[in-house]
Hints:
Elements: H1 2-23, H2 29-49, H3 55-78, H4 84-103
Helix pairs in contact: 1-2, 1-3, 3-4
Amino acid sequence: MDWLILFCAGLLETTWAVGLKYTEGFTRPWPSVLTLAAMAGSFWLLSLSLKTLPLGTAYAVWTGIGAVGTVILGIALFGESANFSRLFCVALIICGILGLKFLSPS
């Protein structure tokens, strides 16, 4: 269950990272409120997962999910580059996340 909570925390990290783009420097009220709510939810879920998961593992997986999700949404929503080397590096992050998940003692 803690891995599912951590995964959801990572999805919310992606949400708030992308949300920052829409806040336009926190000058737009609704995107700003939603971004701040996603931040709070992401941190809260991360803290719940830390009850049983090792700190280093949980933090690395959380930031990895956020990074991968943000890159994918940057490509889909903002037309960012999807060249081979960039996608290869994202694949390496995914391998790291999976490695931490399946090789972790928890």
